[in-house]
């Protein structure tokens, strides 16, 4: 049975991006132990009227700490919860990113924060915090899923 894995990478070689830094996921289709890149899925941050974050920002003019990450607005001063000075875009960013890859069985990033992990848990998507080459990560994870799917022990 084929499934998909989303990977956060800046160079298509290494898993080297935190979940909040990803602007485009590499989507791999896995068939048995074979992995092939099938898509580069760009993420768009569309905050629109009706979103909780949009409404709060409109009320405050974007000048208050709306998301609890210790920075103004949507981490607009770039010092907040995204790490590396990139910031996040509040709660709607996490939800839209997790929704964008909801057809995947797993997500691989350098680090995935607590809020994103909770969203993935609701969707039964596995989260793997790894920092290595994509090839190495996919090899280990496909081995893991192959054994799990066949109800075999992970011990060799």
Describe this entry's structure for a reader.
It is built from four helices and five strands, in the order E-E-E-H-H-E-H-E-H. The chain has 156 residues and is of the alpha/beta class. Strands 3-2-1-4-5 form a five-stranded mixed β-sheet, sandwiched between helices. Strand 4, helix 3 and strand 5 form a beta-alpha-beta unit. Helix 2 packs across helix 3. It is globular, with a radius of gyration of 17 Å. About 26% of the residues have low confidence.
Spell out the key features of this protein.
single chain; about 160 residues; alpha/beta; five-stranded mixed beta sheet
Spell out the blueprint of helices and strands.
Blueprint: E1 3-8, E2 24-31, E3 34-42, H1 52-60, H2 91-100, E4 106-109, H3 114-122, E5 126-129, H4 134-149
Parallel strand pairs: 1-4, 4-5
Antiparallel strand pairs: 1-2, 2-3
Structural class: alpha/beta
> What low-confidence regions span 5 or more consecutive residues with pLDDT below 50?
47-87
Radius of gyration, in Å, reads 17 Å
Reading the helices and strands in chain order gives: EEEHHEHEH
Count every helix, treating DSSP H or I runs of 4 or more residues as helices: 4
Classify the helix fraction into a percent range.
25-40%
- How far apart lie the N and C ends? 23 Å
Please report which band the strand proportion falls in: under 5%, 5-15%, 15-25%, 25-35%, 35-45% or over 45%: 15-25%
Lateral arrangement of strands in the main beta sheet: 3-2-1-4-5
Average pLDDT, all residues: 79
Morphology call: globular
Instruction: Give me the oligomer status.
Output: single chain
